[in-house]
Amino acid sequence: YEYDVEQFIGEIYHAEQADGAQLKIKHYKQALKLYQGPFLPEGEETWIILERQKMQVQFISAMLKMGELYIEIEDYPHALGVVQQALNYEPCMEEAHRLGMTIYSLMGNRTGVIRQYEICRQALMEEMHIDPSSLTQDLFRKLTK
Fold this sequence. Notes:
Blueprint: H1 4-17, H2 21-34, H3 46-72, H4 76-89, H5 94-106, H6 110-128, H7 134-143
């Protein structure tokens, strides 16, 4: 039998164990292809909800790690695409916004840095009624000097 959850977890494991950015990216890409959305979306049992949350965290984490790997090989457009994909799933994830600001900075796009920060600020305010963390604010100031 083939169980896509096991394959998903296996590909993430192989990505983490692989040598070299390209091979890691290959495994992360395969893992992302295997993710078909929330685990048992109709299920409401506690164990299903916990497993669903765990898998979504792994999925988003894999995207961010892949984004960092793309930065490592200086493939900024792909890095930015992966970060934006992660933000589609989790709009308030400051880690992804910070990575996006960093990518824009590496591309020499100061306006992109400002826009990404504003998107982060707005998402956090609308969803949680909070400002970005001091870590995000400090990065923003550093990148826009």
